[in-house]
């Protein structure tokens, strides 16, 4: 039996994939603790892991970041990306280190397993020397000699001109991330580490072991990835034996073309995507099933057409096998889940990592990239028509589904982490 301490920033899309891996590790007989925010205690305990709460670190509500991080008020786009990274990920790191040190002093572990935004866990590993593996729950942001830099929402060039563009962007990408250098140095010094001009990527991604959610085809099929990296597909817990808490209108899905519409759990202003999607498909012979992204929020602040049904969260294990097209803002977890069912996507990726995800899915041929987070109804309608009727797109989604399935998911991740911990203990 190995002892694992898992950490994830307290966001649904970060915690749930690691909970799936925690459950698989517990099933293999390992001792698992999980350090994350208090809102996820029940989720962690359901996996069989022991919840370790944020204490010194400022626990926060992912649906109201501005309450804890006021500089995020009114921010979107690139400015939001940098403020998220600095205020939420980096500046909370010293307090995370304090929490982890207290837990380590209480009972050490054999291996630390972190998500790819847990700066605090990375700094603790650097300070303590404990073995660390990273699970990338976001699109893999690893430097490559191929294609454009990750995060720019660009597809790899296919012509001499666009290939030259990619090379030039790779050259200047480190300069673009320089605003984060000082905050990272500040966090390192605060926990007693020497200053080092490391990028965010170099800080959070383990040089020992990386497990990446997704698949090679969703990473532009780059061929220069390091030997300590494995793709593990979709990280999800085994499906429930029977769906529970289905909405009263669930029977309305029978015999219909079903379109799922979601804006995920971050930046969930329903006027950005949900409203134009409802306008685009109102009156059509389809049933739109809308998730608001907030549990218990089963209504929208504007009228919905007769062919739409709304809920806060929906049981994907029951919904996606009955879904024909997904219209989404492109959250990574939801995107992978839809693709694992071979469903073509219409993606309105507006900020954070969403434009990058939209570009990757479109490059794989499995979806439509609307190239904006606030599309018009006409643009959504055109994307939907293509996703519904283009056979090549549905075939591409099926190929991605097969690839994701072949990579083993959470059970494979647990197997690889078991081997990592065993080698680290020698």
Q: Strands, helices and their partners?
A:
Blueprint: E1 3-7, H1 12-27, E2 31-36, H2 41-46, E3 50-53, H3 65-68, H4 77-90, H5 93-106, E4 111-115, H6 119-128, E5 132-136, H7 160-176, H8 181-190, H9 200-204, E6 209-213, E7 229-233, E8 258-262, H10 274-281, E9 287-291, E10 308-311, H11 316-319, E11 325-328, H12 332-340, E12 345-347, H13 354-363, E13 367-369, H14 377-389, H15 391-406, H16 409-424
Parallel strand pairs: 1-2, 1-4, 2-3, 4-5, 5-6, 6-7, 8-9, 8-11, 9-10, 11-12, 12-13
Helix pairs in contact: 1-16, 5-6, 10-14
Mean pLDDT: 92
Taken as a percent bin, the fraction of beta residues is 5-15%
What structural class do the secondary elements suggest? Answer: alpha/beta
Tally of contiguous helical segments: 16
Largest sheet: 7 strands, parallel
Rg over alpha carbons: 21 Å
Strand order of the largest sheet: 3-2-1-4-5-6-7
Query: What is the percent of helical residues?
Result: 40-55%
User: How does CATH name the architecture of the largest domain?
Assistant: 3-Layer(aba) Sandwich
Pfam family, one: EryCIII-like_C
Protein name: Glycosyltransferase
Organism: Microbacterium ureisolvens
Domain Erythromycin biosynthesis protein CIII-like C-terminal: 279-406
